[in-house]
Amino acid sequence: QVQLVESGGDLVQPGASLRLSCAASGFSFIDYAMAWYRQAPGKGREWLATIGSTGRDTDYAGSVKDRFTISRDNARNTVYLQMNSLKPEDTAIYYCNRPSNLDSWGQGTQVWVSS
Fold first, then answer.
1. Is residue 89 helix, strand or coil?
2. Could you give the CA distance from residue 106 to residue 28 in angstroms, rounded to a whole number?
3. How remote is the C-alpha of 62 from its chain's centroid?
4. Residue 25: how many CB atoms within 10 A of its CB?
């Protein structure tokens, strides 16, 4: 059974940094690209970043490029999202998933950016 457990969300001030983690289980983590998504209040789910199975290839949405960094540790079956220079518009629930299989989702982790 696929499990995705996101953590690391918090209430922070604009300009702060956070690192989110996503622990994955129930599938062969090393064989899959992983991605981060978010859903802001009243909006649809937004793709943020993807990392290839080896960690060498990454891609970012324009809204987070140069501020967010995706990485992974295949030994720990974990994918990370380092978020810098946070803005109020980054307030959302953040999720990770396999972009090739979006059938099941974790509960996400809440990020609030407010002064």
1. helix
2. 17
3. 15
4. 11
pLDDT per residue over 38-68, tens digit each?
A: 999 999 999 999 999 999 999 999 999 999 9
Query: Looking at the DSSP assignment, which residues form a beta bridge with residue 79?
Result: 22, 72
Q: In terms of Cα–Cα distance, which of 3, 10, 62 is closest to 27?
A: 3
Which percentage of the chain shows pLDDT scores above 90?
A: 96
How far apart CA 102 and CA 96 sit, in angstroms, is 10
- Indicate whether 102 pLDDT > 90: no
* DSSP notation for 7-75: E---EE-TT--EEEEEEEESS-GGGS-EEEEEE-TTS-EEEEEEE-TTS--EEE-TTTTTTEEEEEETT
- Which two tokens mark 57? 């290839």
- Between the alpha carbon of residue 73 and those of residues 4, 54, 81, the distances in Å are 15, 9, 12
The DSSP symbol for 90 reads G
As a whole number of angstroms, the distance between CA 66 and CA 64 comes to: 6
Query: What is the C-alpha R_g of the chain?
Result: 13
